[in-house]
Amino acid sequence: MDPVLKVSDIKQYLYCPRIIYFTYVLPVEKKTTPKMEVGKEEHLKTARLEGRRRLRTYGLTEGKRFFNTYLFSPRLGLEGVLDMYITVPRGSFPVDFKNTCRLAVNHKYQLLAYALLLEDWLGRPVRGGFIYLIPLGRAVYVEATPEARLYTKRLLGAIRGLIEREQFPAVPRRAGRCADCEYRNYCGDVG
What we know:
Layout: E1 5-6, H1 7-15, H2 17-25, H3 34-50, E2 64-73, E3 78-88, E4 91-98, H4 105-122, E5 128-133, E6 138-143, H5 146-165, H6 184-190
Parallel strand pairs: 1-3, 4-5
Antiparallel strand pairs: 2-3, 3-4, 5-6
Helix pairs in contact: 1-2, 1-4, 2-5, 4-5
């Protein structure tokens, strides 16, 4: 039976597939990094502020916000806790808070996975969502195109394949990413 994946697995897989290996194949204790602690605090602060703000940042004039919603899809074998979603008369939009100044590819596909989950949960189409860049106070819209949806589902298949094969992935091309990784100590011991 396939494991239920977390939405954050997509972000981690695109950042470095070895994180998936250490999460599912060879589970080890994850060490919380200072970067992770700061990110968690910024998420909480942003959620509190978002509850009092208007929707102008998202280009919307009206709508209702929902925070920290647990979503699960048996069809996708996927679960996650969405930072926020906004419902307006013409549809709903997932919003993922990120403590960064730029939109990264792994953030984009994490958001699209939330869009797929939200779509299953609500039972109606979700055409896209927003990544809220906390330091800039700006939201970036990401459209859930058919190609992006397909690629997101392929990523889920690639993650499951990695877990099933139990094969230690190669070192990512951008080794600079290792500096803040919670698995840094284990990675050098295995590979």
